[in-house]
Design a protein that fits this description.
Helix content is 65%, strand content 0%. By secondary structure, it is mainly α. The chain folds into two domains: 118 residues, Orthogonal Bundle (Tetracycline Repressor, domain 2), CATH 1.10.357; 118 residues. The longest helix is centred in the last third of the chain and has 25 residues. It is flat, with a radius of gyration of 19 Å.
Length: 237
């Protein structure tokens, strides 16, 4: 079985455990939220006891798989920071976004360790700005669906609706910076080995994908657990 697949499943198990922990920790806030109250634990569709039993099972499974490819220490770091994030760090503006970005980067590093491939600075830079943009996109989506009161904080978060424009600017800037890093890599560090795997066409494709996500978010079509309608991206007006 490929090492990449093993570490992938390991991170899936760890992330699933953390999502359960996060949902259980956020029960009070989620039940007051217009959309998150429909989550399984928040609406009572899944008993809390089931979640409490699943967490250790998933974590043990994750560590066992990661140990096969010598990436167990990365899973421990990932899980520890994720739990700290769920318990306290997510309430601090901007810090929560950078912690989320770091957690996404852990998955890259874990994949590199498991497959014995060093993750280049180019990939870290590109992915860092990409993940930062996606983390900001999530916060903007939450703020978009909040009340239009600049003095009211989002439940369980450190943001206010008045922060929306600033977060939007930072998110879109990160979007274009990630694509700029990718373009610079293709221009200046494009090795002969990589030429068969990449082409310049990937830059406009990534740019289009991210721009569509942000357009959907600003139109209020990317809120929390709800999906957006792609056709809305191409309808004039």
């Amino acid at each position: 079985m490929p090492s990449s697949f093993i570490v992938f499943v390991s991170f899936c198990c760890a992330a699933s455990a953390i999502y359960i922990v996060n949902d259980l920790a956020d029960l009070t806030h989620d039940r007051q939220h217009p959309t998150k109250r429909m989550r399984p634990f928040a609406r009572g569709a899944v008993p809390i006891e089931v979640g409490l039993a699943a967490v250790p099972f998933l974590l043990v499974a994750s560590l066992m798989l990661a140990s096969i490819v010598n990436a167990a220490y990365i899973i421990v770091i990932y899980a520890a920071i994720s739990i700290i994030y769920s318990s306290s760090l997510k309430a601090y503006p901007l810090l929560d976004i950078f912690v989320l970005t770091f957690l996404y980067m852990c998955r890259l590093f874990g994949g590199g360790e498991a497959t014995a491939h060093n993750v280049s600075l180019w990939l870290f830079a590109y992915a860092g700005f990409l993940f930062l943009s996606l983390a900001l996109l999530k916060r903007v989506g939450e703020l978009q669906s909040s009340a239009n009161d600049a003095d009211v904080r989002i439940s369980g978060r450190g943001y206010r609706p008045a922060d929306l424009n600033l977060l939007l600017i930072m998110g879109v800037s990160s979007l274009f910076t990630s694509c700029l890093v990718l373009a610079l890599y293709l221009q200046y560090e494009f090795s002969s080995q990589a030429k068969g795997n990449y082409s310049w066409g990937i830059v406009p494709l990534m740019l289009l994908w991210q721009c569509r996500l942000w357009l959907a978010t600003t139109r209020g079509e990317m809120n929390d657990d709800r999906s957006y309608t792609p056709r809305a991206m191409f309808i004039p007006g």
